[in-house]
Write a structure and sequence with these properties.
By secondary structure, the chain is an all-alpha fold. Among the domains are: about 85-145, Leucine-rich Repeat Variant, CATH 1.25.10; about 155-284, Leucine-rich Repeat Variant (Alpha Horseshoe). Helices cover about 65% and strands about 0% of the residues. It has helices at about 1-20, 25-35, 45-50, 65-75, 85-95, 100-115, 125-130, 135-145, 155-160, 165-180, 185-190, 200-210, 220-225, 230-245, 250-255, 260-284. α12 (about 200-210) packs parallel to α14. The chain is elongated, with a radius of gyration of 22 Å.
Length: about 280
């Protein structure tokens, strides 16, 4: 785990430097933003930790997020001059996703992630990056797509049909983290409940669970998944039906006649939870 953390931080620093160069920041400005130290100098990690602490996702801002935040303020304030350099940076980073070096591709993804939704034009290229031969690039590209919200749903939904299970898993995980913003992928996630990979099926069930009542069209597929041969998939599907609420009761009721006692037990427990939650809601 420590190796991945160090690797990630190394590329975070490089990505931030790349963004600064693309946006035309001079060396003095960048050194000042890093607490007076160049990337790679002693204490750089500590300086970045102080500057970037506080991200809602992991306790750290993505590389260059302070710079991109400033650009957003400049645009809204009428400055306007930063828009074209930012667009040029996005285009350059998008091209860098095809670089033969995995480290460069990884840094490019991090840099695009730091720009937030201003980099939404890179969605198709990031979708291709989810198919990257490097597992770390795939994972970061999926997380980056999730940050674009509903705009990235068609791309992620298409990736759920990729021939490689590792790609489908990244797409399902990205949709899971998006919660209600992934509502446009309900049909695709329902189909993923029949995936050949148990990990993909389980993650798709968790993604539907996070959608709550929005996942109601997936009830038939979730009903089938409650009878899955994999116990984790069964549990995740039952929890998704619980989150959908009373509309799931007929499907769960049918499962009480299933020949496998494990399925009947899961269905009964899910119905109990729905009943308790419904009663509690009415009493408030």
């Amino acid at each position: 785990m420590g190796v991945f953390l160090v690797r990630g931080m190394r590329w975070v620093l490089r990505a931030g430097w790349a963004v600064a160069v693309l946006l035309g920041l001079n060396e003095g400005t960048l050194i000042e933003s890093l607490g007076g130290q160049m990337p790679g100098q002693e204490g750089a990690f500590e300086q970045k930790a102080i500057l970037e602490k506080g991200s809602s996702e992991s306790g750290w801002h993505s590389p260059g997020s302070r710079g991109s935040e400033g650009i957003s303020r400049g645009k809204s304030g009428g400055a306007g001059g930063e828009t074209e350099p930012l667009a040029e940076g996005v285009r350059a980073l998008t091209r860098a996703l095809q670089d033969p070096d995995a480290g460069v591709r990884e840094s490019a993804v991090y840099a695009l992630r730091s720009m937030g939704r201003a980099a939404k034009d890179s969605i198709p290229a990031l979708g291709e990056a989810v198919r990257d031969r490097d597992g770390y690039v795939r994972a970061i590209a999926g997380r980056t797509l999730a940050r674009f919200g509903e705009a990235a749903v068609p791309t992620l939904a298409a990736l759920l049909k990729d021939r490689r299970p590792e790609v489908r898993l990244v797409a399902a995980e990205a949709l899971r983290t998006m919660e209600v913003e992934a509502k446009g992928a309900v049909e695709s996630l329902a189909q993923a409940l029949r995936d050949s990979s148990p990990a993909v099926r389980e993650t798709a069930a968790h993604a539907l669970r996070n959608l709550g009542p929005e996942a109601q069209p997936a009830i038939p597929a979730l009903q089938e998944a409650v009878a899955d041969q994999d116990g984790y998939v069964r549990s995740a599907a039952a929890r998704a039906l619980v989150r959908i609420g009373p509309a799931s009761l007929p499907a769960l009721g049918e499962l009480l006649r299933h020949p496998d006692e494990r399925v009947r037990r899961v269905a009964a427990e899910a119905m109990q939870t729905i009943g308790v939650e419904t009663t509690d809601a009415r009493m408030k």
